[in-house]
Amino acid sequence: MQRFQLSVYPDDPGPWHNIDRGPDTKAKARAFALFEKLNTLDPLTIGAIISEGEEIPFLHFTHHAQELFDGWRSDLELKIHSREEHPALEAHLSKYRSLMPSLALPFHLLEVVDGVAEGAVSQRAAATAAAWCDFLEAHARRIYQGVTQHALFAAKRLSERITASALPSPFTAGAVLRKGWSDSLPSRKSGTRLKSWKRLPGYGLKKFLQARKADGHGFTITSTLAYRGRRHREVPQRFVARVRKTLSP
């Protein structure tokens, strides 16, 4: 999964609406023209370098673009080595070391063949690539949350079933398992004690669960407060802000 660095989480598009309109033919023609120029581009004509003993030409970052990359890379490394991320997500984010410059290059080359840039990879292209990494990281976190945030998923499923009156009051972990709803348990172990649900973050579970004092193994439903979890935004605000700052005149 870590190699699919451009993965995005499939959002629900909402109610279906019929849209009957023709394509933007001017935009389509311009895009195809740029692709054709990229396909026939001679890297050496735009300042690309070929190292001795190598065959593939390359471009450096400009000085300002390199400074931006170094700062971005420093933030990324601190995040990866913080030991606060799940190992699967750490492995995914570690691929961003090469993803950012790999995105910056085509962004820059598109501007080169469009006649608005030249030479080394620009700060503008580097900033746009960094913003895209922010965008893709937000989607990666949503993709991995089934593994990294299982407790939150369990809380959400439990709150939905309580709200739908699908569980008796009081109920136990065994009652949940007998219905085949292991996805509503904060642990995949069958012996999970329901008292652990009181410590689940978010989802308002403490609002409608109350421990039975008799044995501490069951919960009584005291209200049916609806799930109030916060959805991840598809486009984080820092992505929007960074793009606006980069593209502003």
- Structural class computed from helices and strand pairing: mainly alpha
Radius of gyration of CA atoms, rounded to a whole number: 25 Å
Low-confidence stretches: 188-196, 198-204, 210-215, 223-249
User: In what order do the strands lie side by side in the largest sheet?
Assistant: 1-2
Characterize the biggest β-sheet: 2 strands, antiparallel
Q: What's the tally of helices?
A: 9
Number of strands: 2
Mean pLDDT: 76
Distance between the termini: 38 Å
Shape: elongated
Which series of helices and strands comes N to C? HHHHHHHHEEH
Helix content: 40-55%
Strand content: under 5%
Give the number of domains: 2
Detail the topology: elements first, then pairings.
Layout (H helix, E strand, L loop, with lengths): L24 H15 L23 H18 L6 H8 L1 H18 L9 H26 L1 H14 L9 H6 L26 H4 E3 L7 E3 L15 H11 L2
Antiparallel strand pairs: 1-2
Summarize the structure.
The chain is built from nine helices and two strands; from the N terminus they run ααααααααββα.
Describe this structure in words.
There is one protein chain. With 249 residues, this protein is mainly alpha-helical. It has 2 domains: 26-148, no CATH class; 150-221. Helices cover 48% and strands 2% of the residues. It has helices spanning 25-39, 63-80, 87-94, 96-113, 123-148, 150-163, 173-178, 205-208, 237-247; strands at 209-211, 219-221. A two-stranded antiparallel ribbon has the order 1-2. The longest helix has 26 residues, at 123-148.
